[in-house]
Every structure is written in structure tokens, then in C-alpha cells.
Amino acid sequence: MRILVAEDELVTVELYAAVLEERGHKVVVTYDGQQCLSSFKNSSVPFDVVILDYKLPLIDGLQAAKQILEIEPEQRIIFTSAYVTDTLGDAIRDLKRVVELIQKPFLPETLVNQVEDSSAAQKLRELNADVKDDEGDVDRLLQQLRAIQRPKTI
Q1: What pTM, to 2 d.p., does this model score?
Q2: CA 122 → CA 1, 37, 143, distances in Å?
Q3: What CATH number matches the domain at 2-148, 3.30.1330.130, 3.40.50.2300, 3.40.50.1220, 3.30.465.10?
Q4: pLDDT of residue 2
């Protein structure tokens, strides 16, 4: 898989890249939202997954995701955040969709397992079909997302 990672903590992003590359994935690393968008826009080959830290300098993860989805509406995005309820609520409000989440802190294997788990994609699309009607019920959507994603991610 080709994976774009945006994370402003150097040690963290190096760990992400190392564990994902060890599994044979091609990883492009960026350190802020602006670099992420530039790498996304300038890539001649699409990314299978974009991993965004929710709190990024210059352009935050949510705004980066919004611009990425304007270019590629079906792009798979995984947010990493210590505040998953807030992140999910903001994604529903601003992106009009439920996104995959991994709650910080997490083990490197958790990231690899979530990235490599494509089985949730269809269920997530179905959940997103109903998001417009459920914008106010973030807790219920978070519970549904927990049922879709791999255990121990959120």
C-alpha cells in the first residue's frame, strides 16, 4: 500500500514509517498539514491511506482532510487523536462523514492492523450514508464505529 502520513512529532512519525515499511508498505512522511496537502496534490500515484494527526501545525488535520476529500472524495483517511469523541464530532460536522480513528497513545501494531484492515470499508460507507441524519448523535456513531473497526483502536 501507498501511505501518506502527517504527524508533527518526529519520533512518532519515524516509528509509524518504520513499522509500516517493515510490512512492505511505501510511506511518504510529512510533518504538518500543508506538507501533507502538497504531497497529496503532487503525487502521480494515488495513496491507499492517509494517516492524519488531528492536531497539526500550519493546517490542522481536519482542514487537510477536507481539502483531500474535495480532490478525492473516496480517499481513505485515518485520524490519530487523543480526543476521539471530539475528532469524530468535528469530522461529522465539517466533513459530513465518519472517519476511521485510532486513539492515542497506541501500540505500533494497532496502526498496522488498522491500515491493513480493508474489511471495514463497506460498513463505513454504509454508516456514512446515514451521517446527515445523525449529526447530533456522536456517541451513538462512535459506538457504531467501534463495532466496525478493529478492537483496541478506539
Answers
A1: 0.88
A2: 18, 26, 17
A3: 3.40.50.2300
A4: 98
